[in-house]
Amino acid sequence: MNVTQQGIEDHQTILQIEVEPERVQRAMQQAARKLSQRYRIPGFRPGKAPYNIVLQMLGKDQVFDAALDDLGGQVYKEAVEQAALDPFAPGRIEVVTREPLTIKALVPLKPDVDPGDYKNVRVVIDDPEVTEDDVEEIVENLQAEQATWTPVERPAQLEDRVTMHANGTVDGEQMFHVHDEEVWLVEDNFKEFPAGFLDEVVGMSSGDSREFDLTYPEDAEHEALRGKTAHFEVEIRDVKERELSELDDEFAAGLGLGGVSTLDELRERIRINEGVRRARDARDQLEDKVLTAVAEQAVIKYPPIMVAAELEDEMERQAETMQRMGFTLENYLRFTNMTPDQFRAQLAPTVERRIQRSLLMDAIAKREEVEAPEGTPEEQAANARLRTALNWLVETVSGKPADWPNITALTGLSEDEIQAMADEGEMEDEEEWEDTEEWEGEEEGEEGEEGEDGDDAPTAPSATTEFKEA
Amino acid sequence: MHIYEVLRRPIITEKGTLMAENNQYAFEVAMDANKVMVKEAVEKRFGVNVLRVNVMRMPGKTRRFGRRVSTTPSWKKAIVTLAPGQTIEVFEG
Known about the structure:
Chain A has 470 residues and is α+β, with helices and mostly antiparallel strands.
């Protein structure tokens, strides 16, 4: 057997393997015997047909392919040994020529990580805090959210809600249509419209209609509309004004939060919720910062197959998550107008970063001889070990201990009390405090879902514009 | 009778493979062919020397289709012995 290695690229190498004809012959004879067991050859009991007959009945190619199934693996293994390689995963085998048999094998190499001078990386981060102003802002948001809308007869102003019927045409073609929709007149809702649209609407009263022309800016979101002048016809059906309720105990109690009956209690609850949320965010941020900084100065090499494999897993996970939410990946892709490959490309950076980080942490854990804490169940040991290593790294690099940020100092409650609140369903976030980072790895059966941020900011009815495909 | 009418098909079976070691090959031949015709046909078709021909009638088998019983046709088998060292390609694969 003659093995030549051709350069390393992308942390994988190509082996060109030439196999002796005698060996191929032997493998084919073995394969023929196996094939004759499987296929009924008339005139012969299974397994009794001689080599020549099998060759004649099934064709040389089929016998050759069957032989290659076994031979390829053997030859590959020997070649890898002969070339003294340390492969990470089974390589891909490709037959170059059949006679004499030459095989090209793509061998992914084991990831190679040099964590660098990670001990001397420094990261700074501020302690999270919740100020009185923060609390007040959230209270005000809640107030805005709870506001009632009453119809008024005056012309519309900013911050009002109007029921709008509108048509937009460009070059005589209808580009969008708003059909009797209630729209909140704030800048954010009109980003897709050319500047000045809002100004036109403001000042119109219930029952008014107006026609005007506006030009889309050169950097409009929809390419087809850039620089185009559109003709709009807008009709206002009614105008509503916002009425904020008084900030008092009654308002607080009316929110229906268990255990909150006064405004002060509401503030206290917000302070705790916000404290817990910020503490978690800060921890995530800190770990992210540390890992980014350490990864930047480290050299992490791995074969592309690693990303590909993880990407497939991730796709499956995404599909599962979607299924749990009641729709399928196919529908999602159709809805977002993406091909599976585009979706994959979109996931790739995250997946790649996850791989890099877990390789990095693994290397550091190895170097620092970190072990999973005593008594960790075996199936969680690998993750626990990386988690321990990460906590150690974070402390080394940022000086923040594993229990930073101090949640008790932030909220005045102990972890247990917070957990108890979460169990009672009084907290908005039930995510496990520990599961902040996902580790890639086959050991892990379950992945923490990406927490959908149940943002409680006042929601604006968006001006639904239906853009036609240009 | 033309030689292609004499020799109907080679009989390639496990048993036939064993017989090949004694330089013997089996054919299904026409019912009305005789030893001489088989010898001539094999020699002409495969370019070999035939030492001996044995022929036998293979009686048809009874087959049942529900209540009806019928028989498959009888046929004639010829076992041809070649001169030492000679072979017939179709049997060897």
